[in-house]
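Lecture 7, part 2: worked example. A protein chain together with coenzyme A.
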Amino acid sequence: MAAAQISIKRVFGHSQGSSPLDKKRAEEDNRTGELTENETKEVSRSMDYEFALREYPRLEGKDVVLRRFTLGDAGDVFEYASDPEVTEHLTWESHGSIEETISVMKKIFLNNPFMYAITLPENDKCIGSIDIRIVEKHNYASFGFCLAKPYWGRGYMTQALELMLELGFKKLDLHRMEGYHSPVNPAVGRVMEKCGMVREGLTRESSLVKGEYRDEILYGVLAKDWQKRE
Ligand SMILES: CC(C)(COP(=O)(O)OP(=O)(O)OC[C@H]1O[C@@H](n2cnc3c(N)ncnc32)[C@H](O)[C@@H]1OP(=O)(O)O)[C@@H](O)C(=O)NCCC(=O)NCCS
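Predicted complex, written out as structure tokens:
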């Protein structure tokens, strides 16, 4: 019952804006006037987010474009996913073959509105990935990303994360966005800092990476603080 009340409040509380998510919620408001508990359950927030994200298949920054993955990216993905330096701090093992990459892409990357390929506008090369992980109940999201080594240090991930924060706050009405990094991988913390996120603390052994529990440093930003930067 409590969850249903939270959902009703949220559905009615976000029908003022002009994003696809707002429009869908406004349609629901107009249709029912008042939602019953069962109707509220139907308006799954997960479906709302999926619906909204499908409206944004392409996000353009100055030097990077975020777009949906296609199977044509498999060669580029294998290049970075097979590099142990790229996967060192990630939960997954380096890919051993292009077949493995294709299989992972089919299962996880393709037709996934929560995931974007990071590409170069000049040649459409896929140089990495970034995905948004929404915790519907609390209206926040975290994210994960990786980038091919030849492209490190050029500001690309900072731009990709800026695009994700803009998506999360402006289009999805999220309240908070957060990210974690390993203390031995400080570049990720710097990327988050450059995007206006603040260090909130260290979570002990909160990540299982390559069979080993590791500490993580948590960064976060609230919508109201992020909006002040604009
Ligand atoms: C970490 C990673 C995402 C950074 O992407 P990127 O495009 O190189 O990042 P940017 O160029 O936008 O910014 C990197 C910043 O980190 C800084 N940096 C790099 N190495 C650093 C280090 N060892 N310590 C502190 N800061 C460092 C850079 O100087 C830069 O900051 P600046 O602009 O103030 O100089 C990328 O290197 C990567 O994909 N690594 C492997 C996978 C990975 O670690 N993924 C994240 C797991 S949580």
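The longest helix spans residues 156-171. The longest strand covers residues 198-209. Keep this in mind for problem set question 3.
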